[in-house]
Design a protein that fits this description.
Rossmann fold, 15 helices, 10% strand, globular
Length: 383
C-alpha cells in the first residue's frame, strides 16, 4: 500500500474526480495512521472532529490495502450511505478493481417463506397492515436484493415487516422450502466474494456471538476491520452478550406457531387457542405501563402494580403452549422449530426472574408498542 497522502493531494485522484474536494491536514494524517495500522496488523483508535473527512480517511487505505476489509457502522443509514455513495465515489476516483458488498441482519430482507405463509394466513391488525403486505409482496416479485430499505412504498416501522421477514429464531435455514430464493443467503454469498464488506455493529456482534457458540458465522474472514462510530460498541456488545424476552418476540412466536399449526396441525384446535392466550399475556404485560415509554431497573418495574403478576402470567402461557407443542412438533419442521423457540424463551424468562444468577443487570425497557425484559452482563469486557 502506497502512502495515501498523494491521493489526497490537490492534483491527486480525489480532487480530480470530486468537484470541490479539498483535503485537510488532519484527514491526511488519519489516513496515514490507518494505512500503517492495516499494514502492521495493529489496533488503532482514532477520533476526528466534525469536518475532518474521516469517511474518506478510512476508505482510501481500505481500498488500497489489497486485502479483505470489513467496515462496520453504527447505523443502517450510514451503512447505506457508505455502500451507495461514498464507496463507489472513492473506488471510481482511485480506479481500483475492488468489489464491494452490503450485508445487513436477516430482519432487513424479505423472507419468501414467511411472506407467503402470513399473506395466506391473512391475519392483520389493521387495513394498513394488509395493504403494506400486498405492497411487500409486489416488491418481492421484482427486487434483486430483497432489502426492505429499497421498498419505498412501505414505512420501515410498518408492522407488516414483522410478518414478511425472518429472525434467527424462526428461520428454518437449509430446511426451508424457499432456501433457493433466500435473499439473506444471497447477500451472504455476495459478502463472501467481495473485497470490502459494509456491515453494522449489530451484525458484527451477532457474528461474534455465533462463532463463540460454535454455530457457524455470518461474516467472512478478513484482513482488517474498521469500526465507524466506535463509541457505540460497548452498548451494542451489551445487547448481544445479554439476554432479553420481549413482548414483540412473544407475539412473533405466537403468530408463527399459529401459522405452522394452520399449515401442519389444523386439527389441533388447542394449539391455536394457546397462541391466542399467549398473545393476550404479552399484551397484558405491556399494558401495565399504559402509554408511557421508559427504562427501569427490575426492582423499579416490580413496584408497578400488576407487573409481577403479568410476568408470571406470561410464563404460565408459555409453559402451557410448550406442553401442547410438545405433542405436535413431530408433524412438521416448522412446528418443531416453534417448540425449540418456546423452550428457549421459557429458559430465558426463568433466568431473568432468578436472583441466584449473578453478574447480570436486570432491567425493563418499555416502548410504544412493546416491552423487553433485559439481562445485561455487568462487565462486557469479561465476556
Amino acid at each position: 500500500m502506497s502512502d495515501p497522502s498523494s491521493i489526497f493531494a490537490p492534483d491527486g485522484p480525489l480532487a480530480a474526480a470530486i468537484p470541490g474536494f479539498c483535503a485537510r491536514p488532519q484527514q491526511i494524517e488519519m489516513a496515514q495512521r490507518i494505512a500503517e495500522a492495516i499494514r502492521g496488523n495493529r489496533v488503532l483508535v482514532a477520533e476526528a472532529g466534525t469536518g475532518t473527512g474521516k469517511t474518506f480517511a478510512y476508505l482510501v487505505p481500505a481500498l488500497m490495502s489489497g486485502g479483505k476489509v470489513i467496515v462496520s457502522t453504527g447505523t443502517k443509514t450510514l451503512q447505506d450511505q457508505l455502500f451507495n455513495r461514498d464507496l463507489p465515489t472513492v473506488r471510481a476516483a482511485l480506479k481500483v478493481p475492488v468489489s464491494i458488498a452490503l450485508l445487513k441482519g436477516r430482519a432487513n430482507y424479505v423472507c419468501p417463506y414467511h411472506l407467503e405463509r402470513n399473506e395466506r394466513d391473512g391475519r392483520f391488525l389493521t387495513p394498513q397492515d394488509a395493504a403494506d403486505m400486498r405492497a411487500i409482496a409486489r416488491f418481492a416479485r421484482t427486487t434483486h436484493t430483497g432489502d426492505k430499505a429499497e421498498c419505498t412504498d412501505v414505512r420501515e416501522d410498518s408492522m407488516a415487516w414483522i410478518a414478511a421477514t425472518s429472525t434467527r429464531d424462526n428461520c428454518l435455514g437449509q430446511d426451508c422450502p424457499n432456501v433457493k430464493e433466500c435473499f439473506v443467503m444471497q447477500a451472504r454469498r455476495n459478502a463472501m466474494d467481495a473485497d470490502v464488506v459494509v456491515v453494522n455493529h449489530h451484525l458484527f456482534f451477532a457474528d461474534v456471538m455465533l462463532r463463540d457458540e460454535g454455530m457457524g458465522e455470518l461474516l467472512p474472514a478478513c484482513n482488517a476491520v474498521i469500526f465507524d462510530e466506535a463509541h457505540q460498541l460497548p452498548e451494542t456488545a451489551s445487547l448481544f452478550f445479554g439476554e432479553s424476552v420481549s413482548t414483540a418476540q412473544v407475539l412473533e412466536l405466537a403468530r408463527d406457531t399459529r401459522s405452522e399449526a394452520v399449515a401442519g396441525a389444523r386439527d389441533c384446535v388447542a394449539l391455536i387457542d394457546e397462541t391466542r392466550a399467549l398473545e393476550k399475556a404479552a399484551r397484558d404485560l405491556r399494558l401495565v405501563f399504559g402509554t408511557e415509554s421508559a427504562r427501569l431497573a427490575a426492582a423499579q418495574a416490580a413496584d408497578r402494580q400488576g407487573f409481577n403478576d403479568m410476568v408470571a402470567g406470561l410464563g404460565a402461557a408459555l409453559d402451557s403452549m410448550q406442553a401442547v407443542l410438545d405433542t405436535q412438533a413431530e408433524r412438521s419442521e416448522g412446528l418443531a422449530n416453534c417448540l425449540r423457540r418456546t423452550e428457549e424463551m421459557v429458559e430465558r424468562l426463568t433466568r431473568w426472574g432468578n436472583p441466584e444468577v449473578k453478574d447480570l443487570i436486570r432491567w425493563v425497557e418499555v416502548f410504544a408498542q412493546s416491552l423487553a425484559l433485559n439481562a445485561t452482563p455487568l462487565h462486557v469486557s469479561d465476556v
